[in-house]
């Protein structure tokens, strides 16, 4: 899977999550929405690699996680994230909504409010987490 694939998957996961809300599949919507952020961050990591260069082993190993905060670090976006959260209370709130997602959420029950807030935090046109990630992928 390359960077462009990860970018497409990120957008598709968010679209799929959005379509699950009206049918009452809030758990699945929340879960898929989180994967949109994971894939977006992995696209940022993929951008670091150059064709035909041998990748740094630590970066590769650190990329194989679902932990969004660790992916931010591996993508080299920690300072940019800090700046974004310092500059915008809206973005700070959106990141706070998204950051604790994990692949374990597939086992958790989520409410319509949980799922809707997650999706809105990700897709907000001005301060959404995916919109922020798109600047760096």
Textual characterization of the structure:
The protein is mostly helical. It has one domain: Four Helix Bundle (Hemerythrin (Met), subunit A) (Up-down Bundle). It is 67% helix and 0% strand. It contains eight helices and no strands. Helix 2 runs parallel beside helix 4, helix 2 packs parallel to helix 7 and helix 5 packs across helix 6. The longest helix is centred in the N-terminal third of the chain and has 22 residues.
Give the number of DSSP strands: 0
Number of continuous helical runs: 8
The termini sit apart by 14 Å
Question: Secondary-structure element sequence?
Answer: HHHHHHHH
Annotated CATH architecture:
Up-down Bundle
| Domain module count | 1
Give the helices and strands, then pairings.
Blueprint: H1 3-20, H2 26-47, H3 57-63, H4 68-74, H5 78-87, H6 89-98, H7 112-123, H8 129-134
Helix pairs in contact: 1-2, 2-4, 2-7, 5-6, 6-7
Task: Summarize the model shown.
The chain has 137 residues and is mainly α. It has eight helices and no strands.
Name a few traits of the molecule.
single chain; 137 residues; mainly alpha; Four Helix Bundle (Hemerythrin (Met), subunit A); 0% strand
């Amino acid at each position: 899977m390359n960077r462009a694939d990860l970018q497409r998957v990120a957008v598709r996961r968010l679209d799929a999550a959005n379509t699950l809300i009206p049918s009452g599949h809030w758990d699945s919507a929340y879960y898929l929405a989180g994967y949109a952020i994971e894939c977006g961050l992995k696209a940022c990591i993929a951008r670091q690699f150059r064709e035909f260069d041998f990748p740094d082993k630590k970066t590769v190993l650190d990329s194989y996680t679902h932990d969004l905060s660790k992916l931010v670090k591996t993508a080299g976006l920690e300072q940019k994230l800090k700046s974004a959260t310092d500059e915008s209370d809206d973005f700070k709130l959106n990141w706070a909504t998204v950051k604790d997602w994990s692949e374990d959420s597939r086992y958790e029950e989520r409410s319509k409010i949980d799922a809707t807030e997650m999706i809105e935090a990700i897709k907000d046109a001005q301060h959404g987490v995916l919109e922020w990630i798109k600047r760096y992928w």
